[in-house]
Amino acid sequence: MNESAGEIYDIGYQRYTGPREGRMRARKALFTNGIRTILGLGRGILPKVFPTVFASIAVLIAVNFAIVSSQGIPTDDLPDAAVFYRVVAYFMVLFSAIIAPDLVCPDRRSNVIHLYLVRPMSPTDYVATRWLAAFAFTLAILYIGQAVLFSGMTLGADEPLDYVRDNWLDIPRFLLGGLVLALYAATIPLAVSAFTTRRGYAQAFIIGLFFISVPVTAVFTKCEEFEEQQRGEFMEFVEVKCEPVAGTYTKWVALGDLTRVPVHVADLVFDKENSSNLSRLVRELPDFVPVGWFAILIAGSGFTMWWRYQRIAL
Amino acid sequence: MSPLLEAKGLTKHYGDTVALDGVDFRIDEGITGLLGPNGAGKSTAIKLFLGLLKPTGGSAEVMGERPYERLESRARLGYMPEHECLPPNMSASEFLIHMAQVSGIPPAQARTRTADILRHVGMDEERYRPIGGYSTGMQQRVKLAQALVHDPVLVMLDEATAGLDPSGREEMLELIRRTGRDFGISIVLSSHLMRDVESTCNRLVVLEGGQVMAQGTVSEFTEETQVLAIDVDEAHKELVVALKARGVDAKLEELTVVVEHATTEQYDSIREALVESNAPLRRLSQRRRHLTDIFRNSDQ
Question: Model pTM?
Fold first, then answer.
């Protein structure tokens, strides 16, 4: 027969005498919680799908570009770091439209934000840590993609060391360009999400806001550069001169495509021409205009978001 | 000894509405009830002490500091709101670890504290299930646990028994009593339920219309009256007749014989009346006032 080896006593409630790390620990905790939310950790399968798909797309695009670059096509025609951002920007906007409401709307819907704000944490701390989580994750994905692309192009080059020597300036450029894209992707969707407690409404509104701006801007800035004309018995496309709907304001209206705003700035960082119609139009403007427009959108969204959380009724 | 909470000329206006009108009171260690009808200014007072609102005038100090000027002082406060405030998708364990860290506790210690506090509030295996599937009673326990997880000096409970059935309510009140008594954590219990406050608190601040109507120990409010209650098993009417025959002003209230304005000289007459009416005595005691009586009188 087994004999009991010991006894268990309830020592009752014990006061906490360990360290208290104050406001900085609170910020770290909320940042970590934000990253976990973005990654869908501690939840079902679906929340994990979006970050995985976005990260996979970024890496696959980078790998694809790297493979194409190793085919020996003349350098000027190769997809590069600037093109990578142009392509990834669409997915990034879509991804941020999904994750940004996930970061803040449930906190207000379930009133957990009330519990945060009675602890050593101000509304500004709350907004800043949530924003930082979205920014850090987006930036990490963009940088991973660029790192894969740069490594692939280096390894695919005939003389890898020469490639690095000739293209090392791409590194600070893609670091700066990534900052621009991540800043944009984190700020505007979070500002929109601050106005509703419903995740679905926020997601629909952000996607609508971004992707409706694409055809609307296109309608006002494009013109049919080709039209069908009768040539004898055949119809054929003929290039014609045309005037866009927005007339002389077309290059300004080109700034209205919200999915392309950070790409215009990133193109300036890379100092690369973009052959798309919108980019050509924006290039006609002084450089400070797309940069200023980007700054206005970021500052306006950032202030709106901050202002909104100062007025959370508890 | 400096008070835990002190309101000095505390005033709060919402536009033209005066929520608190220059109130002065202090709250020391122990369990203090903040009592008053809806709209009395209880929640406004709590929000001012938590630093969520700035006073229009006067000051709200927590352990000598003004929380709306120094956020760090909130690290030693706990708050359990009346409304829902729990994330339905997280487990109680995961949520409390997170909230402990948001209160400034490092991760390793946050895990230990969470395990301890969930045990103290009576959450066993269910702590690992999502909160969304909990009963109201369990959710109230988690709300209390999140307010205690960082071991505050003082915890403010806003209508802690709201939505609970009678047994759940009694369990919650016992938990609150135990928190104040055994854990050594001071409590401010804001409630409009006088029975809850009377059975749980040892001090009381009564607010009404944005002003302090009364404050003091609960025993001061519920002091003995000159009303004598005589509980007998039978012969109630005979006892009343026998008392009246001896000049004692007695009346029957349900199954209790009540003597108002009883004096010590009348005790002999009461004893004789009991013997004469042959009524088996169960209890003879001076009635204490109840908080409900006080408020009933103030209404009139």
Answer: 0.83
Q: Which residue of A has its CA nearest to B153?
A: A15
Axis crossing angle, helix B166-181 with helix B136-148, rounded to the nearest 10: 10
**Residue A111 in contact with residue B85, Cβ under 8 Å?**
yes
Which residue from B72, B81, B113 is facing A16, i.e. has the nearest CB?
A: B113
Residues 6+ apart with CB under 8 A from B88: A110, B130, B131, B132
Residue A2: count of CB within 10 angstroms of its CB: 4
Instruction: Flag whether residue A121 sits within 8 Å of chain B, measured between CB atoms.
Output: yes
**Whether pLDDT at B300 is above 50:** no
Put simply, the answer to whether A120 touches B104 (Cβ < 8 Å) is yes
Segment B270-275 shows an average pLDDT of 91
- For tokens 């109840």, name the residue: B290
Question: Which chain B residues are within 8 Å of A23, Cβ to Cβ?
Answer: 71-72, 104
Answer whether residue B100 shows pLDDT above 80.
yes
Structure confidence by residue, pLDDT tens digits, A225-260:
555 666 666 666 666 566 666 667 788 888 888 989
Measured on CA atoms in the order A264, A94, A29, B87, is the torsion positive or negative?
positive
Burial class (CB in 10 A: 0-12, 13-18, 19+), A210: buried
Please tell me the distance from the alpha carbon of residue B114 to that of residue B96, in angstroms, as a whole number.
6
A-B CB pairs within 8 A amount to 102
- DSSP string across B169-193: HHHHHHHHHHHHHTS--EEEEEES-
Which two structure tokens, joined as six digits, stand for B221?
Answer: 């409010």
Are A135 and A37 spatial neighbours (Cβ–Cβ below 8 Å)? no
Q: A40 CB contacts (<8 Å, ≥6 apart)?
A: A46, A47, A48, A49, A50, A51
Q: Using a CB-CB distance cutoff of 8 angstroms, which residues of chain A are in contact with residue B72? A: 22-23, 120
Phi/psi at B259 (nearest 5 deg)?
Answer: -115, 115
Q: Which member of A16, A29, A112 has the closest CB to residue B85?
A: A112
Beta bridge partners of A235: A230
Q: Which of A8, A14, A3, A95 is nearest to A55 (CA)?
A: A95
Beta bridge partners of A72: none
CA distance linking residue A118 with residue B50, whole number of Å: 6
How large is the ipTM?
Answer: 0.83
HEC letters along B271-288: HHHHHHHCCCEEEEEEEE
> pLDDT tens, A180-193?
999 999 999 999 99
Number of helices and strands in chain B (H, E) = 10, 13
